[in-house]
Design goal:
The complex is a heterodimer of chains A (158) and B (289). Chain A is α+β, with helices and mostly antiparallel strands and 158 residues long. Chain A is built from 5 helices and 5 strands. Chain A has a 5-stranded mixed β-sheet, with helices on both faces. In chain A, a hairpin with a 2-residue loop joins strand 1 and strand 2. In chain A, helix 2 crosses helix 5. The relative contact order of chain A is 0.16. Chain B has 289 residues and is of the alpha+beta class. Helix content of chain B is 35%, strand content 26%. Chain B is built from 12 helices and 14 strands. A 5-stranded antiparallel β-sheet of chain B has the order 4-5-10-6-7. In chain B, helix 10 packs antiparallel against helix 11 and helix 11 packs across helix 12. Chain B is globular. In chain B, 53% of the residues are buried. Classes of the chains: A alpha+beta (158), B alpha+beta (289). The interface between A and B is medium-sized, with 35 and 29 residues.
Chain lengths: 158, 289
C-alpha cells in the first residue's frame, strides 16, 4: 500500500481537492484522479510536450512535476482555455488552419502557444518555432501549427 | 514510478536532516526534469524526494558589484535568462540556460540540477566553469564550497557526500575588460543533447589577453578545463594563429567516445570549431560587442 495524500490546488480557476498517490506525477493526477484527460501522455520523460500545462504562470511538462508539488498552485490545462461563450481565438485558429492531424499533440501545442502569447503577444516566426521546440508533432504538421499561432497573434491587434 | 515518498524541506537544516536520515536513496528535488524521469524509469533508485524549493536560499538570485552573483540551486532557467543583471553581466549563463531542453523544461530545470545530475554533456556546466562558479554545499558537517570545475567526478558522479546538497552557485563579479561565451553543437535546431559544447572567458589588458579559461563538454567523462588552450592565448594579442593554437589544444585534450550522437573524429573536429568560435565571441563581448 502506498501513501495517499490530499492535495488542494486551483485547477482551471476552480479550487480543487483531490486524492493522489504520493508517487503520482501531475500528469497522472490530472488524468487518473481528476478526470482531466485533455492533457496527453506522450513520451512521459519531458521530451514531447504533449502533457504541457501552465503551473503558476509558467509552462511545464506535467510528467516532470510530482502531484504533491502542486499543493497551493494554480494550474491551467487545455480544458481551461475555452471561455464559457466558446473557443478562444487561438483554438479557432488551430481549427481554421487545420493545425492538427492525429491530434494527440494538440492540447500541448495549444497550452504552450497560449503561454507564449501571454508573455509575447506578437512573436516572430522564429520566436514561435523556438518556443514550441519542446512540443513534438509526430505527424510533422508544424507549418500549419505555426500559421495558426501567427493568425491568433494577428487577431489580437497591435 | 517506483515507490517513492515526497516531502518538503523548509530550511537548509531540515533538508540536510532529511537527506542524512534517508541515505543514498533520498534525493534533493529541484526542477525534477532529470530526477523524476530517472526515478520513473528506474534508472536511479529513489525512495524519497526532498523538495528543496521551499527553502528561500535555493530560489533567489542576488547580486552585488563587490561580492558577485549568487543563484539558488533551484532557480529555474527561465528566471536566469529573464534576469536583467544576469543578462547584462553574465551572458554566458544566458547562452546555456536559453537552450536547456525546451520552454517547458526551462520552466523548471535549474543550474543546481544540471550540475548535480553530472551528465558529461550538461549544457550549463562549461559556462559555469569559465565564469569561475563555486557550488555552495550544505551538509551534516556544515557548509563547504567546491569549484564547479572540481564538482563532477564522472558520468552521474560528483563530490557530494551523504546528507549534502547544493544550496546555490556563486560567481565572482565580472572582471574589467572581460567577456565570456558558451555554445554547443547539436544536429537538430533545438531540443537536443550536446554532441560538443564549449565555454570561454577572456580578460584583456590593452590588446593582449591577460587571462583565459577554456572549458569543453561532452568530449570526456566530465566537462574539462583546458589549461593549454588558455596558455596559447595569454600574453598575446588575439590572432588567427593564437586562436588556432587554442583550438588545437582543445582537440588534443578531448577524449570523446563514439556513440549515436557523434563519432570521435567528429567530436574532436567540432570541439576545435566551438572553442575558436567562443574565443571570438568572448572577445567581442569583452570589447562591449
Amino acid at each position: 500500500m502506498t501513501e495517499r495524500i490530499i492535495i488542494t490546488a486551483t485547477i482551471n480557476d476552480e479550487e480543487t481537492q483531490f486524492m493522489a498517490d504520493m508517487r503520482d506525477s501531475l500528469l497522472d493526477a490530472l488524468r487518473e484522479r481528476i478526470g482531466l484527460t485533455g492533457t496527453k501522455e506522450g513520451c512521459n520523460n519531458g521530451n514531447c510536450g504533449a502533457c504541457a500545462v501552465i503551473m503558476d504562470g509558467r509552462l511545464v511538462n506535467s510528467c516532470c512535476v510530482m502531484a504533491a508539488e502542486v499543493e497551493g498552485s494554480e494550474i491551467t490545462t487545455v480544458e481551461g482555455l475555452a471561455e464559457a461563450d466558446g473557443l478562444t481565438p487561438l483554438q479557432e485558429a488551430f481549427l481554421e488552419e487545420a493545425a492538427l492531424q492525429c491530434g494527440i499533440c494538440t492540447p500541448g501545442f495549444l497550452v504552450a502557444s497560449k503561454a507564449l502569447l501571454d508573455v509575447n503577444p506578437h512573436p516572430s516566426e522564429h520566436e514561435i518555432r523556438f518556443w514550441l521546440a519542446g512540443n513534438l508533432c509526430r505527424c510533422t504538421g508544424y507549418d500549419k501549427i505555426i500559421r495558426a499561432v501567427q493568425k491568433a497573434a494577428a487577431q489580437r491587434g497591435a | 514510478m517506483q515507490k517513492v515518498r515526497y516531502t518538503r524541506a523548509n530550511s537548509v537544516e531540515e533538508a540536510v536532516a532529511l537527506l542524512e536520515k534517508g541515505g543514498a536513496t533520498a534525493r534533493p528535488l529541484a526542477g525534477g526534469t532529470d530526477l523524476i524521469v530517472q526515478a520513473r524509469e528506474r534508472r536511479r533508485k529513489v525512495d524519497l524526494f526532498v523538495d528543496i524549493k521551499p527553502i528561500p536560499e535555493t530560489n533567489e538570485i542576488t547580486f552585488d558589484p563587490a561580492g558577485g552573483l549568487t543563484i539558488g540551486a533551484a532557480v529555474p532557467a527561465y528566471r536566469i535568462y529573464g534576469n536583467e543583471t544576469v543578462s547584462r553581466l553574465y551572458p554566458a549563463l544566458v547562452d546555456a540556460c536559453r537552450v536547456i531542453g525546451g520552454t517547458a523544461i526551462q520552466g523548471r530545470a535549474s543550474l543546481g540540477g544540471n550540475l548535480c545530475n553530472s551528465s558529461p554533456a550538461a549544457d550549463s556546466v562549461p559556462a559555469m566553469i569559465v565564469l569561475e562558479g563555486v557550488a555552495n554545499i550544505a551538509g551534516p558537517r556544515g557548509r563547504r564550497s567546491v569549484p564547479v570545475e572540481e564538482f563532477n567526478t564522472g558520468p552521474g558522479q560528483n563530490v557530494l557526500q551523504p546528507g549534502e546538497f547544493v544550496v546555490s552557485i556563486h560567481f565572482p563579479p565580472p572582471a574589467r575588460n572581460s567577456g565570456a561565451a558558451w555554445d554547443r553543437f547539436i544536429p537538430r535546431n533545438e531540443m537536443d543533447i550536446a554532441v560538443v559544447n564549449a565555454g570561454v572567458q577572456l580578460r584583456f589588458e590593452g590588446d593582449r589577453v591577460s587571462w583565459a579559461k577554456v572549458a569543453i563538454g561532452a568530449v570526456a567523462p566530465t566537462a574539462l578545463v583546458v589549461p593549454a588552450a588558455a596558455e596559447a592565448l595569454v600574453g598575446k594579442p588575439l590572432s588567427d594563429a593564437t586562436i588556432e593554437a587554442a583550438a588545437e589544444a582543445a582537440r588534443q585534450a578531448a577524449r570523446p567516445i563514439d556513440d549515436m550522437r557523434g563519432s570521435i573524429r567528429q567530436r574532436k573536429h567540432l570541439v576545435g570549431v566551438y572553442v575558436a568560435r567562443m574565443i571570438r565571441k568572448a572577445a567581442e563581448r569583452a570589447r562591449g560587442g
